[in-house]
Design goal:
Elements lengths: L21 E3 L9 E3 L9 H4 L16 E5 L13 H13 L2 E4 L1 H5 L10 E8 L19 H11 L8 E4 L11 H11 L2 E4 L12 H17 L6 E4 L15 E3 L2 E3 L1 E9 L15 E5 L7 H6 L13
Helix pairs in contact: 2-4
Bound molecules: zinc ion.
């Protein structure tokens, strides 16, 4: 079903602005002084106040949600690496194509803070690798790390803030153990979130049910302790699900209820809209940020050809 095309605010009536008028005395007046007319407050033009649409795509609340998947932001071979230059180019591409960042939790709660005409991109970072966030000796975010690059980009693109979802391994938070809490604090203060990627990154399909429960429950408890409020989301390591995947729909562990608002895969293309009844919250696809056919870059570039219509905020 096609949604009606939203008309732009240009169809609204214009109000001409009133500029101060100078009254000059006609010749023959006693003096040639000029007198200012009574001050009149300028009325802003209607188009100045109307919200500007981020893209000219028509509203589409049933469109696809693009979930980008990153691992290392540094030089390296293979699909797990994205160089800083490529990461910067990705940010530019998302921005130009009208995508704006939302958290995994916001997507699943169907509370995506998007401007009219914008489409969501969920920026996810797996494995808490050191290149995702580092601090300099003076405690600043290293501009060469992913978060540093994104912060720099957000300075000139304030409507693309550092709102990312970090699927972490609580035992190895971006290297240097002493800085872990400071990095968590920084990420949360910027509006990013931490999410579950298990304790030891096992192949869950090779684990017993008891081991699966230990891995995901303990990670949830660690996220709570780090100050990350729930409900948490989970990305399964290697994209592999437990043999009894229904475990992930909820269970009790050490007297506490463990559940997820969503479980993410490691591949699979654009995800379904939170409004789509066919969205399977326990198997949400993502797209690797790589130079391959099945990459987010490729999916975004094919939007123009009409393949995969993205979610567009009315
Ligand atoms: Zn991983």
């Amino acid at each position: 079903m096609k949604l009606a095309l939203l008309k732009l605010a240009s169809s609204l009536g214009r109000t001409s602005s009133l500029s101060p008028v100078l009254f000059a005395c006609a010749t023959g007046c006693g003096s040639h002084q000029t007198t200012k007319a009574p001050a009149v407050k300028a009325v802003p033009k209607q188009e100045d106040t109307a919200p500007k649409r981020v893209s000219n795509r028509p509203a589409n609340l049933m469109g696809r949600v693009y979930v980008a998947e990153y691992h290392h932001i540094r030089a390296g071979r293979g699909p797990m690496f994205r160089t800083p230059k490529q990461f910067r180019a990705d940010l530019n591409l998302y921005y130009k194509m009208g995508f704006r960042p939302v958290l995994a939790s916001e997507y699943l709660a169907n509370k995506m803070p998007l401007a009219p005409g914008a489409s969501p991109v969920v920026m996810t970072f797996d494995d808490s690798n050191p290149s995702q966030i580092q601090l300099t000796k003076t405690g600043e975010v290293d501009p060469r790390s992913a978060v540093g690059i994104w912060m720099e980009f957000a300075k000139t693109h304030p409507d693309f803030p550092v709102h990312g979802t970090f699927f972490v391994l609580p035992g190895s938070l971006w290297g240097k153990k002493k800085q872990a809490k400071e990095k968590v604090k920084l990420l949360l203060s910027m509006g990013s979130e931490l999410a579950n990627h298990t304790m030891s990154h096992p192949f869950l399909n090779h684990c017993s049910d008891a081991k699966v429960k230990y891995e995901v429950a303990t990670c949830n408890f660690r996220l709570d302790a780090l100050g990350q409020p729930g409900p948490h989301t989970l990305a399964v390591p290697y994209g592999e699900f437990p043999r009894h995947s229904s475990i992930l729909k909820g269970f009790t562990y050490k007297g506490k209820q463990v559940e997820f608002s969503g479980v993410f895969m490691a591949w699979g293309g654009p995800a379904r809209s939170p409004n789509d009844p066919k969205l399977n919250r326990y198997k949400i696809p993502r797209m690797m940020a790589v130079n391959e056919e099945d990459s987010i870059e490729n999916y975004i570039k094919t939007i123009k050809k009409g393949h995969y219509k993205p979610y567009v905020q009315p």
